[in-house]
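Morning!

As promised:
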Amino acid sequence: GESVGLHLPTLSVQEGDNSIINCAYSNSASDYFIWYKQESGKGPQFIIDIRSNMDKRQGQRVTVLLNKTVKHLSLQIAATQPGDSAVYFCAESRGNQFYFGTGTSLTVIP
Amino acid sequence: GAGVSQSPSNKVTEKGKDVELRCDPISGHTALYWYRQSLGQGLEFLIYFQGNSAPDKSGLPSDRFSAERTGGSVSTLTIQRTQQEDSAVYLCASSLLGSKTEAFFGQGTRLTVV
């Protein structure tokens, strides 16, 4: 079936290292993607988005890469900090909805 | 306010009771979404409002769930005859122009049915 999924449910990184969180999607018609960060007890927070006419987009310490050939999305966080510890979701826009995966829990080790 | 506001932040209710959850979207946002998030899970789509169009109710899990959006702004999600499986965090989001622009989420309402 169609789905947005994540390759790894948990990820631990040392403070200062770079983090890469991956996401696979199955619908080639999807044309807009968002990464969200969710801290415990809070709602998802927008991080960065990318449209399907782009391969890469950069923000502050974050980069999103889109590979439409293999329907893969990744979020790269540079110089990961303790405040980056959270669950990260990718969301795929299709029709009226955003479809979310189950998330990747990122833990930053001081 | 500057962001999406939801109330109450927490709600404990007895099985069989009705509950109403409120969402105040960002001013000027035409699209409003309700999602449900169970513990440790992703977000499950419930319903979508876009301007004056008929809402997309395709995600509502049963006829006990309903939602309204009055005046294109505030939305209320109503769950009738609550069941224990309804326990979850209910998240509201709004976006300027639907699912082709970023959606901003509120803090959610944590519903516990006992």
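Residues 56 and 65 of chain A are 5 Å apart (CA to CA).

Hope this helps with the figure draft.
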